[in-house]
Write a structure and sequence with these properties.
By secondary structure, this protein is α/β, with parallel strands linked by helices. The chain is built from nine helices and nine strands. The protein is globular, with a radius of gyration of 18 Å.
């Protein structure tokens, strides 16, 4: 079954990476939530995409330079619409508590490339085990060294390799470093890549797919996961495809 991953929550309708975006994504029928993890100066794991807070908050500067208490003073929703001004930057723990109560999976993307966060891998894995979520979480990153390190910490944790350009036989590369999934930009995904991944027991979770015809194509390939800003659109397509027992894109 193809999992419906809500990209930064239902970010097509609500301010990304906020609790309201996560809560609404679940209401709109997602199977999982994709989000981004960074770390404050005092070591708290927080959910925000950019290393700099200026795009999605009313503050400025780098996440790494904020204490958690100061970061929480920022509005994470007013940039999107004034009615969301009370939204704050959530913690990874808050999302785990929400998803655990709802039976929803989580994809934590570790943002440890532009800014390196020493110990972020150990900290997120410890948090996952604290809530017995090890079978319901996948860790991903564009920093593949980070994913290798996650496997060194715990070989049973599920890891995914993010990439944006075409990799040659990505499933074999993924397998060669003992990771579990590839997370490609959807432009780079072909049916052949999906087929070879399945042959090698590698998961394929493509991002960020908002076009319904592309969703249908990937559903017809039986891709493992689709990451989208519009989980309601994907949920409806999945339901329709299941009724018809097939899912073919429009000509």
């Amino acid at each position: 079954m193809t999992l419906n991953y809500a990209h930064r929550g239902a970010s097509g309708y609500f301010p990304e990476n906020t609790m309201i975006a996560f809560e609404k994504a679940i209401e709109l029928g997602c199977d999982a939530i994709e989000t981004d993890v960074q770390m404050t100066s005092d070591g708290v794991l927080v959910l925000i995409h950019d290393e700099d807070v200026s795009r999605t908050t009313d503050g400025s500067g780098l996440v790494k330079d904020y204490t958690f208490n100061n970061l929480r003073k920022l509005s994470a929703g007013s940039w999107y619409d004034k009615k969301f001004s009370s939204e704050k930057i959530p913690t990874a723990e808050e999302l785990i508590l929400l998803t655990k109560s709802k039976g929803i999976k989580v994809n934590f993307e570790l943002k440890t490339g532009i800014v390196l966060y020493p110990g972020i891998e150990e900290q997120i894995i410890n948090l996952i085990y604290k809530y017995n979520m090890e079978h319901h979480v996948v860790l991903s990153s564009f920093n593949h060294y980070s994913m290798v390190h996650c496997k060194e910490i715990d070989k049973n944790i599920t890891t995914g390799l993010l990439y944006v350009e075409g990799l040659y036989r990505p499933a074999l590369y993924c397998k060669s470093i003992s990771c579990d999934a590839i997370h490609p930009d959807y432009h780079t995904v072909t049916e052949e890549i999906v087929r070879e991944a399945k042959q090698n027991r590698i998961l394929v979770n493509a991002y960020t797919v908002d076009d319904e015809n592309i969703m249908k194509t990937m559903l017809s390939w039986k891709i493992d996961g689709i990451i989208t800003n519009y989980p309601d659109k994907l949920a409806k397509l999945k339901e329709a495809c299941q009724r018809k027992k097939s899912c073919e894109p429009s000509p």
